[in-house]
């Protein structure tokens, strides 16, 4: 792995809260939740060629249906969803958010269906990998720095064509109590395409309002362990705050644009950790 890649100091052992009071009675509920998530993902694999993932047939499935389906995925995992904030414009748009969990992906798509920017490793994930590939995901090979300009050009082309592209510019997941620095490359694509940037703030709480790191997917955590932790938790709430879009032409370099977007995507209870 390249030394320039962003990394977070968060680890499952040091940062992630394990749900308390998981009893034998909670196991069947968790299994039902995970079964529901898998069934919804499989349905997405079947239907994705007819929807936003196919350039020839894009738009056959209404965006409202895609948004509702993404909410169902999160809800099937036992997580309530609250989406608040600004309206989301049509046309080319770069959505950027802080990154805590695998849940962030369907949550962003619940705001607006978009082509995700994801690391190439996601292709190998069971169920979710094929869905991502067929859904038009733009993959980035983080081990090949030389491929970055081509990736930026592909993102800019998708934005010019009127697509929304969703990205997590931290480049790595964080536990939620801290946040990394937004990498600037993806913002160059928005500048090149002349489209707005819409920051989105994601945070996870318990029903009583207490913040929690239980949904975090960090460090050497496995996807299966994270899925089980979410499915066995009780009272999880995902709060998604859509911030006002940053219009094109208000920033003339990617550093300034990233610096403007990052604080708006930082949960109020986090602090930023600068990463070399």
TrEMBL record:
InterPro entries: Plipid/glycerol_acylTrfase (IPR002123). GO terms for biological process: phosphatidic acid biosynthetic process. The keyword Acyltransferase applies. The chain crosses the membrane at residues 30-52. Residues 93-205 form the Phospholipid/glycerol acyltransferase domain. Pfam families: Acyltransferase. Keywords: Acyltransferase, Lipid biosynthesis, Lipid metabolism, Membrane, Transferase, Transmembrane, Transmembrane helix. Pathway: Lipid metabolism. One of its GO terms (molecular function) is 1-acylglycerol-3-phosphate O-acyltransferase activity. PANTHER family: 1-ACYL-SN-GLYCEROL-3-PHOSPHATE ACYLTRANSFERASE, 1-ACYL-SN-GLYCEROL-3-PHOSPHATE ACYLTRANSFERASE-RELATED. This is 1-acyl-sn-glycerol-3-phosphate acyltransferase. It comes from Streptomyces swartbergensis.
């Amino acid at each position: 792995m390249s030394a320039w890649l962003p990394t977070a100091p968060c680890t499952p052992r040091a940062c992630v809260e394990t749900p308390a009071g998981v009893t034998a009675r909670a196991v069947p509920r968790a299994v039902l939740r995970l079964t529901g998530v898998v069934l919804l993902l499989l349905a997405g694999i079947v239907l994705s060629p007819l929807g936003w993932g196919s350039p020839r047939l894009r738009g056959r499935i209404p965006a409202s249906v895609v948004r509702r389906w993404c909410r169902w995925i999160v809800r099937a995992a036992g997580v309530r969803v609250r989406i608040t904030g600004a309206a989301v414009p049509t046309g080319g748009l770069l959505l950027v958010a802080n990154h805590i969990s695998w849940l962030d992906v369907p949550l962003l798509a619940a705001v607006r269906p978009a082509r995700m920017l994801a690391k190439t490793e996601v292709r190998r994930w069971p169920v979710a990998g094929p869905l991502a590939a067929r859904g038009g995901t733009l993959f980035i090979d983080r081990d090949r720095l030389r491929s970055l300009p081509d990736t930026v050009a592909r993102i800019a082309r998708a934005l010019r064509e009127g697509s929304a592209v969703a990205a997590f510019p931290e480049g790595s997941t964080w536990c939620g109590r801290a946040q990394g620095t937004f990498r600037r490359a993806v913002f160059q694509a928005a500048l090149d395409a002349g489209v707005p940037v819409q920051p989105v703030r994601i945070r996870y709480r318990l029903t009583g309002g207490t913040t929690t790191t239980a949904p975090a997917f960090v460090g050497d955590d496995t996807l299966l362990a994270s899925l089980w932790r979410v499915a066995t938790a009780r009272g999880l709430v995902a709060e998604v705050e859509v911030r006002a879009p940053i219009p094109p032409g208000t920033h003339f370099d990617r550093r300034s644009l990233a610096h403007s977007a990052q604080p708006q995507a930082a949960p109020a209870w986090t602090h930023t950790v600068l990463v070399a």
